Structure to design on (1189 residues):
């Protein structure tokens, strides 16, 4: 142990630790908890940034002794007491503080920049943020944040509008205003799971399979259990005999129960073999080395092609059961089951056939597809292949659990607290009332935290041992043992006439679900169910088959299957337009749906059941196309000064959904506290997207109280009511509507109570700002007074509004994304020069957050399109286990001219007319960029990622 | 982990002789990156405080201290533009402020930021080892595989203009190819394959192999078109 004398945040400090310890670890332990790590000390993500004797540095790459005499500034140093500085405030105002795992570090960097350069140029800001990876809000509004901070310094206020405002008649809805948890997040408060871990807690470590496909014949843990500090070891041979699946979906799930906590067969490199509970990682690693596993390897399959080949090795080949709807020949089917394998239990038929590696299937359509192709003047038939992007949240999957009062308490970073409760209770074989899930702030989810990938094992380990246990995925585990987008091979056949009418569309989707069937029906379904309904085409049909393979697990990812479907279908439309010699934009305009159009296609697109046919609701699609075309000067050919660089333009029209009507369910309560302020209890899981702020706005708008009089507690399964969770773009529409209904309920109760207290009729009373009941004769009663009386010794009790929300109605967001790219015809290099994302989100409740959601989602999809690639070697081992290897986009990759535009449309079903915003924004980049590249250099690249090498190949350069 | 703190370069190289498995610790951006469980098994000889970081004119050239940060090189106005640009290939501000030229050259990664430019500018390394001091050209150093000497400084002999290129999928991605030339001196660093030093066609002797950054054919083609005047 050594003492290092330095200054931290302007004060003398002594940092104590081992000489060789990372400064980051010592700082965190010493209470500077905003200094985090996102990549196991790779030196990439910048969540550990500090200012070290005047320069920004990664504290993970500094050893403790090197800090002797140093002047260190951590994000805590930006605060004056609890007061945030002007840069932090500007970041909150600009909407960039979202999941915010490293937002404090970004604030530190920008403060450092502004101290040295009070009026930085765009390049300076880029440079300041060059070493920090931001996945949530994109980089664009960071430029705005700097501008706002400069304005505040110069004029004492912000001059530039943060975002447009919507709905003049409303006071807070549709107006940019600081996210209610923004300050806490940007100041680096202890809000994440890791901050909850008590000293002396044990850790969980997972021994993982080196084989992609093998029977586990035995696991001998006897020697490992003798290691001092090892508490328990869980294997396939002593874990509960409980089948489940990890996709956090509504119950009954449209995914098969095809696993236990640990299985007698491993199905991907990195699959769980043993879970070790130990006092620390070092002990666990020592124990892991002593575990004797006898594997019996089987030939693996990695691609859809390999999985569908005649006689291919079977990834699952146990007994198949159905909870409902079992086929009549099931006994016959099960005769060939492998007795060494565990079962696969379908909740209801998903048209799977595991004896052919098929996890799920579906098909359907409208019209007469063959007739449609006969009527066409030209037909294209192309196949597109997408890759396996990973969500890469800056905070990896993490969970902390302990026993309290005989109950299992889990601190989680999850999108689905109530599904976590249900599934963990099932695995532990205890009722739900014994489990308490607390959703902490989520340092990035993007779908991967919809899946219950670590809480299952950790929850069980805690329940079994009674110990407090912490688990955190390494960054490498995030890549190979977590969840990713399902790779898909999508064939699109599209026919059209010379006048631009599309006569028929056929989609053949072959998806790769990997080792387990998480979302195996619904993600691939989305490739068709979120794309075909945007077309006003009479003849459309799709076939879908999802295959089990031995690649790393797949699951939910923002956009679900839609980004892949759009890549294929819009590229095909572009190819068809090119073939017909017509403008693809004109073709789009001719074939898109409009409000009121009956969506017959939906009948065959229900997720595992017949879908409801509904008309198109509010729809800003045409406006988005028209506006976007104008902004990018569609039709005008741009010439580069350098003849090697060719410039092209492309676009994609897009849609998504807002939650799952008929399946999703949200609840909320609004409590009137004794001083007249409000507490909203929402089941919804705020992932940093501003859902809590939205809930507060619902209450503020209905009950006419100032925002600062409202606090929100959400996603805590003890104090809040049930909500299916934050996925499928459900937050605003479902959880938001539940909060709205709860606020309306409380309003009625307030009026009722006021009428009793004032002795007036209810219809004589109204509610006015700031939280006052007013009678026609001018008598007023403040909420404070009303609540005080209601909760006094003679009162009628506390007023609580309750609201729930379910619906058969769809609130579909639409949009159009436009890209302008430059392609170097000699080197294949690609630059996205312009990107314009135009979306109709109904009434954007938090417009500045909505814009940042769009920037963030577009950046992710630019990443998937051009850079990111999860690569496996021949044995199925993932070789891209760091951010650098996997290649995520940084600020340098953001388009030079990047704009998000909200199309103003009011929806009839959403809360105050709102629809969803973020998932849809993942759908446009791939097809728009692919089309722009084709426009620039005449070649269509049909596989992700679109690399310079692929372009050069297509151009015949080598 | 053992960390040794020599007070002079001579003492440092002596320690290295005694503990051949140890590593010199300079900026630490490579040594400390991703190192975790093995932290405890490592032995570092910290040379960061005893090595010069100065960048100064000397004769007709410029001498860069082995501990000079890539950020300082990128900012230095006495260095040719293309050398400054190569230091800027390290695209993270935080890493640039920590990574040293000595460490960069010593690593001799095929996607090295600096080595092609240093060769193009006819740089000579001043090395010190337990056997004494010596000067070596960059290409000779790379080929020697010397891990025992400390790069005390780098002397840039030619301040002529040149060009530096880095071909990577994204700013922070591994480069498929880094290349530089000044006058008739060309150098190529090819990911997963090797270095080539010499004239513009020197790359043709390299055995181009496939890795995450692309196929061997792609890299060979890129090398052939790296510089406009040879296209
Ligand atoms: C995310 C990330 C990406 C990176 N990408 C690249 C890249 O694309 N290209 C690239 O070239 N580098 C890359 N690096 C590695 C590294 O940042 C640079 O090469 C840097 O310049 C190394 O310098 P350093 O001072 O930090 O070296 P250190 O980490 O201190 O040392 C690196 C090696 O050089 C030796 N050494 C250090 N100084 C000397 C000296 N003066 N004399 C002799 N031996 C010495 C050390 O013993 C060690 O073996 C990357 C690093 C990270 C974290
Ligand atoms: S080393 Fe910086 S976030 Fe991990």
């Amino acid at each position: 142990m050594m003492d290092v004398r330095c200054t931290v945040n302007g004060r003398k400090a002594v940092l104590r630790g081992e000489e060789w310890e990372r400064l980051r670890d010592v700082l965190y332990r010493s209470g500077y908890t905003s200094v985090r790590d996102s990549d196991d000390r790779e030196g990439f993500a910048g969540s550990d940034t500090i200012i070290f004797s005047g320069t920004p540095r990664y504290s993970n790459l500094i050893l403790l002794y090197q800090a002797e005499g140093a002047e260190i500034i951590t994000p805590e140093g930006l605060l004056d007491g609890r007061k945030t500085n002007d840069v932090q405030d500007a970041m909150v105002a600009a909407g960039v503080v979202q999941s915010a795992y490293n937002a404090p570090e970004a604030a530190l960097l920008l403060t450092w920049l502004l101290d040295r350069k009070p009026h930085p140029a765009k390049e300076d800001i880029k440079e300041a943020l060059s070493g920090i990876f931001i996945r949530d809000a994109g980089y664009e509004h960071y430029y705005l944040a700097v501008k706002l901070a400069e304005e505040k310094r110069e004029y004492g206020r912000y001059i530039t509008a943060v975002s447009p405002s919507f709905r003049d008649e409303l006071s807070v809805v549709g107006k940019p205003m600081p996210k209610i948890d923004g300050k806490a997040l940007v100041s680096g408060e202890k809000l994440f799971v890791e901050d909850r871990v008590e000293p002396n807690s044990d850790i969980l470590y997972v021994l993982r399979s080196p084989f992609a496909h093998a029977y586990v014949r035995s696991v001998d843990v006897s020697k490992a259990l003798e290691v001092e500090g090892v508490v328990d070891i869980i294997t396939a041979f002593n874990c509960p005999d409980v089948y489940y699946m990890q996709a956090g979906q509504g119950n009954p799930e449209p995914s098969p129960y095809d696993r236990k906590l640990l299985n007698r067969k491993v199905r991907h490199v990195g699959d769980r073999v043993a879970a070790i509970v130990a006092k620390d990682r070092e002990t666990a690693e020592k124990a892991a080395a002593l575990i004797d596993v006898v594997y019996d390897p089987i030939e693996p399959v990695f691609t859809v092609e390999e999985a569908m080949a005649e006689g291919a090795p079977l990834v699952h080949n146990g007994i198949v059961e159905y909870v409902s709807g079992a086929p009549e020949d099931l006994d016959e089917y099960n005769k060939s089951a492998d007795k060494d394998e565990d079962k696969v239990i379908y909740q209801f038929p998903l048209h799977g056939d595991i004896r052919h590696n098929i996890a799920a299937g579906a098909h359907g359509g409208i019209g007469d597809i063959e007739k449609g192709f006969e009527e066409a003047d030209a037909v294209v038939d192309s196949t597109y292949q997408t890759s396996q992007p990973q969500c890469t949240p800056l905070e990896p999957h993490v969970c902390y659990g302990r026993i309290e009062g005989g109950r299992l308490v889990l601190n989680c970073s999850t999108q689905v607290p109530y599904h976590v409760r249900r599934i963990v209770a099932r695995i532990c074989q205890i009722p739900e009332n014994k489990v308490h899930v607390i959703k902490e702030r989520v340092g990035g989810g993007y779908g991967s935290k919809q899946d219950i990938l670590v809480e299952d094992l950790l929850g069980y380990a805690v329940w079994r041992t009674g110990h407090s246990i912490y688990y955190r995925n390494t960054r490498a585990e995030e890549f190979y043992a977590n969840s990713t987008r399902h790779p898909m091979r999508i064939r699109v056949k599209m026919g059209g006439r010379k006048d631009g009418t599309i006569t028929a569309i056929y989609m053949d989707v072959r998806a790769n679900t990997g080792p387990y069937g998480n979302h195996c029906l619904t993600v691939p379904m989305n490739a068709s169910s979120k794309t075909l309904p945007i077309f006003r085409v009479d003849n459309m049909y799709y076939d879908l088959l999802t295959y089990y393979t031995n690649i790393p697990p797949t699951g939910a990812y923002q956009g679900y299957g839609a980004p892949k479907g759009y890549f294929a279908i819009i590229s095909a439309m572009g190819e068809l337009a090119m073939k017909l010699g017509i403008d693809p934009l004109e073709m789009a305009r001719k074939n898109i749906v409009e409000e009121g159009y009956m969506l017959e296609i939906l009948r065959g697109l229900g997720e595992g059941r017949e879908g409801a046919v509904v008309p198109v609701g509010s729809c800003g699609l045409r406006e988005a196309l028209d506006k976007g075309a104008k902004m990018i000067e569609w039709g005008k050919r741009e010439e580069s000064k350098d003849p090697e660089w060719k410039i092209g333009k492309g676009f994609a029209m897009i849609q998504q959904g807002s939650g799952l009507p008929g399946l999703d369910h949200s609840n909320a309560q609004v409590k009137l506290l004794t001083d007249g302020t409000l507490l909203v209890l929402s089941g919804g899981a705020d992932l940093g997207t501003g859902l809590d702020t939205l809930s507060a706005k619902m209450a503020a708008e209905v009950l006419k109280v100032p925002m600062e009089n409202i606090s929100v507690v959400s996603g805590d399964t003890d104090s809040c009511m049930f909500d299916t969770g934050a996925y499928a773009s459900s937050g605003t529409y479902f959880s938001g509507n539940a909060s709205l209904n709860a606020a309306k309920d409380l309003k009625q109760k307030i009026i009722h109570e006021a009428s009793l207290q004032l002795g007036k009729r209810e219809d004589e009373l109204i509610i006015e700002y700031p939280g006052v009941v007013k009678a026609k004769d001018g008598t007023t009663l403040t909420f404070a007074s009303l609540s005080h009386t209601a909760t006094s010794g003679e009162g009628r009790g506390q007023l609580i509004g309750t609201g729930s929300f379910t619906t058969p109605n769809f609130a579909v967001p639409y949009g159009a994304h436009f890209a302008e790219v430059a392609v170097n015809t000699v080197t294949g290099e690609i630059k996205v020069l312009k990107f314009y994302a135009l979306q109709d989100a109904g009434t954007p409740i938090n417009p500045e957050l909505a814009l940042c959601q769009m920037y963030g989602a577009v950046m992710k999809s630019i990443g998937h399109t051009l850079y990111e690639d999860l690569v496996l070697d021949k044995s199925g081992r993932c070789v891209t286990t760091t951010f650098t290897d996997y290649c995520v986009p940084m600020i340098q990759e953001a388009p030079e001219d990047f704009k998000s535009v909200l199309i103003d449309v009011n929806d009839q079903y959403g809360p105050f007319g709102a629809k969803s915003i973020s998932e849809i924004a993942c759908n446009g980049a791939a097809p728009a960029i692919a089309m722009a590249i084709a426009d620039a250099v005449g070649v269509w690249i049909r596989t992700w990622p679109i690399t310079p090498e692929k372009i050069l190949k297509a151009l015949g350069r080598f | 982990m053992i960390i040794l703190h020599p007070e002079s370069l001579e003492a440092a190289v002596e320690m290295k002789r005694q503990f051949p498995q140890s590593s010199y610790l300079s900026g630490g951006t490579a040594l400390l990156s991703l190192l975790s469980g093995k932290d405890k098994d490592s032995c570092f000889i910290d040379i960061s405080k005893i090595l010069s970081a100065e960048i100064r004119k000397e004769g007709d050239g410029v001498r860069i201290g082995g501990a000079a940060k890539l950020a300082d090189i990128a900012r230095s106005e006495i260095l040719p533009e293309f050398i400054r640009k190569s230091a800027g290939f390290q695209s993270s501000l935080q890493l640039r402020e920590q990574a040293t030229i000595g460490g960069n050259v010593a690593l001799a990664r095929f996607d090295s930021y600096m080595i092609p430019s240093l060769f193009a500018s006819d740089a000579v390394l001043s090395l010190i080892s337990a056997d004494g001091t010596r000067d070596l050209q960059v290409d000779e150093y790379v080929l020697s595989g010397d891990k025992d000497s400390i790069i005390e400084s780098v002397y840039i002999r030619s301040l002529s203009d040149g060009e530096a290129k880095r071909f990577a999928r994204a700013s922070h991605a591994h480069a498929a190819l880094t290349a530089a030339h000044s006058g008739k001196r060309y150098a190529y660093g090819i990911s997963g394959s090797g270095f080539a030093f010499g004239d513009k066609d020197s790359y043709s002797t390299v055995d181009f192999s496939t890795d995450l950054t692309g196929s061997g054919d792609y890299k060979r083609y890129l090398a052939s078109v790296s510089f406009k005047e040879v296209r």
User: Anything to note?
Assistant: Chain A touches chain B through 56 residues (CB under 8 Å).
